[in-house]
Write a structure and sequence with these properties.
Layout (H helix, E strand, L loop, with lengths): L2 E10 L9 E6 L4 E8 L4 H22 L15 H23 L7 E2 L1 E6 L3 E7 L4 E5 L2 E4 L6 H8 L1 H5 L22 E6 L5 E5 L1 H4 L4 H10 L2 H14 L6 E11 L10 E5 L4
Antiparallel strand pairs: 1-11, 2-3, 3-4, 3-5, 5-6, 6-9, 7-8, 7-10, 9-12, 10-11
Helix pairs in contact: 1-2, 6-7
């Protein structure tokens, strides 16, 4: 792999919840980083997020293990092979959660968000369903690199004034989630990577308690492992209302990088579609 990544991840139950419904997976060798925030109550959310993470991990692991792995039909011919692999894994995970919810009454209505980053030779494939945030720190600036699938975010894209009149409860009311229906439409983005870039993937247990300026300050000051600990401790010190899960990856080196790109964004697809 041409990207050299330093990464760390941490998941914490928080101060108010009895169980942890978040799941995470990170592996620098695979170049795969996934956070899922389950929902459904009474262990169902925990089950849903674990199915999502395990299914994505198992599908994506084939591409490093097998010489000629069988691939699913491309879902989107406008994105790269790597992006289609990640999208296929998300579609499989959605079907797995939906099927389990259909088979067991205790799991009826369960679901999960998913936010995932997959590294290529020179960049990132970023995909999400739901509202678990992904931010990129590039040259000292922090920007969101995901699409929040919530009522208020989608209303804001169409009519910002009307969105301002919606109540707080719509801020986390999801318009898309894993497993709720038999199909799902992930948002996907492909980015060029640069040395020093930092990506953070989190559940909203962090971002409900710690604002983006504070997150950026910690990311720029501390290495990934220490930054995970600092941010979890800060969210807990402010009440820890929800489970808190964080993955941080920092680009240490990009080999053979082209200098022809003038901006960091290559493709942004499905934006508020």
């Amino acid at each position: 792999m041409a990207l050299v990544i330093e990464s760390a991840g941490l998941s914490d139950v928080g101060q108010k919840r009895k169980g942890n419904e978040d799941s995470l997976f990170l592996d620098d060798r695979m170049g795969l980083y996934v956070v899922a925030d389950g929902m459904g109550g009474h262990l169902a959310g925990e089950v849903a997020s674990k199915i999502v993470v395990d299914t994505i991990r198992d599908y994506m692991s084939r591409f490093g293990r097998e010489k000629n792995p069988e691939e699913m039909e491309d879902h989107d011919i406008s994105v790269s092979k790597e992006a289609n692999r990640l999208l296929s894994s998300i579609h499989l995970a959605n079907q797995a959660v939906h099927s389990m919810a259909e088979q067991k009454k205790a799991y009826t209505g369960m679901g999960s968000t998913v936010s995932a980053v997959y590294t290529t030779d020179s960049g990132f494939v970023i995909a999400n369903v739901g509202d678990s945030p992904i931010y990129l720190v590039h040259q000292g600036s922090l920007e969101p690199v995901y699409v929040p699938h919530t009522v208020i975010a989608e209303q804001a894209a169409m009519d910002p004034d009307a969105a301002g009149r919606l109540g707080e409860k719509f801020a986390h009311m999801l318009t898309r989630a894993m497993g709720v229906e038999d199909t799902v439409a992930p948002s996907v983005l492909e980015l060029q990577a640069w040395p020093g870039d930092i990506i953070i993937i989190a559940s909203d247990g962090l971002t409900n308690m710690v604002n983006t300026d504070e997150i950026k300050k910690v990311l720029l000051a501390e290495p990934p492992q220490a930054a995970c600990r600092t941010l979890v401790d800060l969210a807990n010190a402010r009440g820890g209302d929800d489970n808190i899960t964080i993955i941080i990856l920092k680009v240490k080196k990009v080999s053979g990088q082209s200098s022809g790109l003038s901006g960091i964004f290559e493709r942004i697809l499905d934006f508020f579609r």
